[in-house]
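Weekly modeling sync, notes
Attendees: AB, CL, MP (scribe)

Item 1: holo prediction request
CL wants a bound-state model with 9Z3 before deciding which constructs to order. AB pointed out that an apo prediction alone won't tell us much about the pocket. Agreed to run with the ligand included and paste results into these notes for async review.

Input as submitted:
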Amino acid sequence: MENEDAMRFFIENPAPPTLSDVENKVNKFIDLQPENRNVVLVTSGGTLVPMEKNMVRYIDNFSAGSRGAASAEYFCKAGYAVIFLYRNFSMMPFVRHFEGPWTNLFAKKDDESPLSWEIKDSLRNMLSNSLEDLELMKEQNQLLCLPYTMLTEYLWYLKTVAEGLKCLRSRALFYLAAAVSDFHIPAQDMSEHKIQSGAGKDKLELTMRPVPKFLRYLVDSWAPEALIISFKLETDENILIHKARAALHRYNHQLVIANLLTTRKRSVAFVIHDSVMWLHLSEDDLRNGVEIEYYIVSQCVKLHKEKNLT
Ligand code: 9Z3
């Protein structure tokens, strides 16, 4: 039944024109991988759901993309090839520390020469090293960055990447850190043009429908042999673990990483089968700038190795 919902979603929301280009890039990237290299799909950022077909307004999902970008970087460093499916203009691995207005990168020189702006001294080395790292990963075919904006793009690309990775069987890992909308307005219910305000209208009522549960599809059909790790985001700590467990039992994948919006950068819970393991950054970690994604990715890599030994 759920699979039928997913099929219907793809019929009602046709593929974006960019899909064949994405498919080619993914297949080429997978073909180029040496036999002993694992491949991870890291999803990142939030999906956007339009309110009108000629979109003026939309509903967005919260995510800065920091978890995905940091994790992609640590997976690269652990020797994985990374397909990074990210919200366009959200954070990118290796250059994520330079997000923000590009004008902040420059300082005015003390002299009077006409070309008097240059990269700030304090940033020059770091910027150069980060760009080198990014370039190296691309040259070694270890990083493929695929931007999306809309929920429909995200889901079409997810399906395409999963189909591409199927041939790698258990060498593939899915690390689903993107914040994906649970509700959307189906294409046939969506206003063609900008929703009008005006005389007599004192409220706007929208009907949104649940997005089919694609995790089920991924586990059962798209990537049955891969290691699949999803994230659960809540704002109420009283329901977090319960919801993460429910997701694990419902979809029957290997791991749910649960986090609360306010503490996500220093605490996460690994929910596996019936056990819950909390991971908290220590005072030392915080002082030394150690990121929680470093520990999360190490655990995921370990789990992937263990799974492939059994
Ligand atoms: C997460 O829970 C991520 O950890 C965050 C990372 C989005 C909180 P940032 O990008 O934040 O570093 O700012 N992602 C999953 C969110 C989500 O939508 N999960 C769904 C759910 O909770 C399941 S796919 O129901």
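Recorded for review: The domain at 2-99+122-309 is CATH 3.40.50.10300 (Rossmann fold).
Action items: CL to compare against the apo run; MP to circulate these notes.
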